[in-house]
User: Fold this.
Amino acid sequence: MAFSADVKQELCRQPVNRRCCARAEAYGVLLFCTAFDRRQARIVTECGALKERLPLLFRKAFKLSFDQLPEPGEGKGSFLVDDPEKLRAIFHAFGLEWDVHINLAVLEEEHCRTAFLRGAFLAGGSVTDPMKGYHLELVTSHYHVGRELPALLREAGFEPKEAERKGSRVVYFKQSDHIEDFLTYLGAPVSAMAVMNAKLERDLQGRVNRQVNCDSANLDKTVAAAREQLAAIGRLEESGRLDFLPDKLREAARLRVEHPELNLGQLGALCEPGVSKSAFNHRMRKLMELAESAEPS
Assistant:
C-alpha cells in the first residue's frame, strides 16, 4: 500500500478553492467511504494527509464539522457525522433521497467531475506498486454507484473494467497507460510518471533477462558442439588419421583442442590466414565426418 499512500499524499496537495469542487470531492469521498446513509457518514483512513484535508474539505463544502474525529497519533482514524441535521444538509446538497447514487447534475463541470473522482480515489481507491504489477481500483459498497461510475469514467475518456467482490462493486484499470492517464487526470502527475518509469524499467529488465537467457542458451549450444568436436578429434588422433589430414584441417583440430572455450568465429580469426565463422564451421563438419567414417561399422 506504500505507493497508494504516496498517490493520496500527492492528491491531497491539490488546493481546495472552489466550493463546487469541494462539494464534488466530498461527494466522491462519501460515496466510496466506509459507510454513508441516512444514519451516518463514516470515513476511515490511515492517510495522514487525508486526515488533515477532510475537516477543511467538509467545512468548505457544507460549512459543517465532524461529530467525531480521530484521536491524535491514531494510525487508522475514523471521521463521523451522525447528527441528523448535518446528514440532511449533505443529502440535500446532492439532491439525494434515500437511495445513494451519483447525481450527474451536480457534476456538470469538468473540474467538478475531476474533483469527484479524486475524492472517490482518496476514500475507496488503491493502486498497486508499479514495480510489482498494474492494478488501480475504486471500491464502493453502493450498488448503484458502482454501476454508474463506469459511465462517468467513459464520459471522461476512460475505459474501466467492472467486477463484484464480497458484495462491493469494483471498478478498475489493469493497463499501465490507463493508470498513468487516470492519475494525471486526478492531479497526481508525479505518481503517473512513477508508473511510466517503472514500466520502462520492467521492460528493460525483461529485455535484459531475455538476452541473458538467449546468450545462456547459445553458450550451452556452443559448449555441446565443442564437446562433440573434441570427441571427434580425439577419435581421429587415436586412429592415427589426424597426422595425415590436410594442413587446414589439422590447424582447425589444433585450435579447437587448444581453445575449447572459444566459439567458431573466434577460432576462425586465429587461423593463418584468418577465416570466417562459416569456413571454420565447414572444417569442423569435415573433421566430424572423417571421425565417423574412421569408426568401425
